[in-house]
Automatic annotation (TrEMBL):
The lineage of its organism: Bacteria, Pseudomonadati, Pseudomonadota, Gammaproteobacteria, Vibrionales. Keywords: Methyltransferase, Transferase. Residues 42-131 form the Methyltransferase domain. This is Class I SAM-dependent methyltransferase. Gene3D superfamilies: S-adenosyl-L-methionine-dependent methyltransferases, Vaccinia Virus protein VP39. Pfam families: Methyltransf_25. GO terms for biological process: methylation.
Length: 254
């Protein structure tokens, strides 16, 4: 039950499509870093470093890990002249950097990519291993609600963007329930380029409730200390469809 790499085939295309959507996350972390004396950062599932690289300017060192070689290679290319940021091709369920960080982050709803409970537990155990008593772990994810479980019978238009090479790309999606996993959606994606080329991929997303996530965190010595509906710190309500969680170790340094 591993997440497909097909959606992350090109770091250049990933940046072209998503490169302008991280400003709220960056502002959130910059504020936390300023008020919590954060000097070191670990970005788990960092993609092409869209968040890691801007934050590294205010840190002594930053590290990003991702399971996609194309993402990591492009992140390295973009940061080649930055001395305090490093990227590694590593899987979040099995990595060990033998170091601890003041702040560990996971953005882009990557928390939902851990489909099996065993993989989620392994990821959380690894995160905890890389924290000291006063570290923070911050992540976002969508919550189970009817709109996220809607299915479609045909490919429907989602969005458009300008590719790395300057072509217009139209993105279409086909949404279905996962055939074997509960509370999991399978999204098939088709990108149509101006030159007639198509690229097909898919991504699977697991939806867990806040209570379930909180229980999982506590099983690994972690606790939710702040909860928001988004990166702008909108208060969380019963009707919220996503949330941002700020996590601390259950037992802290004194």
């Amino acid at each position: 039950m591993k997440q497909s790499r097909s959606e992350f085939w090109s770091g250049e295309e990933y940046d072209a499509q998503y490169g302008n959507y991280c400003s709220d996350e960056i502002s959130f972390f910059q504020d936390l870093m300023l008020h919590r004396n954060v000097l070191s950062l670990l970005d788990v599932c960092c993609g092409t470093g869209l968040v890691t690289i801007p934050l590294s300017k205010k840190l002594s060192h930053a590290v990003g890990i991702d399971f996609s070689r194309s993402m990591v290679d492009f992140a390295k290319s973009k940061s080649s002249n930055i001395s305090n940021v490093t990227f590694y091709e590593k899987d979040a369920v099995s990595f060990d950097l033998k170091s601890v960080f003041d702040l560990i982050i996971m953005t882009g709803n990557a928390f939902q990519a851990f489909l099996a409970d065993t993989d989620l537990s392994s990821m959380l155990e690894n995160v905890k291993k890389h924290m000291h008593g006063n570290s923070f772990f911050v992540f976002d994810c969508r919550l189970p609600c009817p709109k996220y479980f809607e299915t479609t019978h045909n490919y429907e238009y989602w969005s458009s963007y300008t590719s790395y090479s300057g072509e217009n790309v139209d993105v279409y999606g086909l949404d279905s329930r996962h055939p074997t996993l509960s509370n999991t959606m399978l999204h098939r994606v088709r990108r149509e380029y101006e030159n007639g080329m198509q690229y097909q991929s898919y991504i699977e997303l697991k939806y867990r409730s806040i209570n379930e996530i909180g229980d999982r965190l506590e099983q690994h010595g972690l606790q939710l200390v702040e909860r928001y509906a988004d990166w702008k710190k909108t208060p969380l309500t019963e009707s919220s469809t996503s949330f941002v969680g700020v996590v601390r170790p259950l037992y802290r340094d004194h």
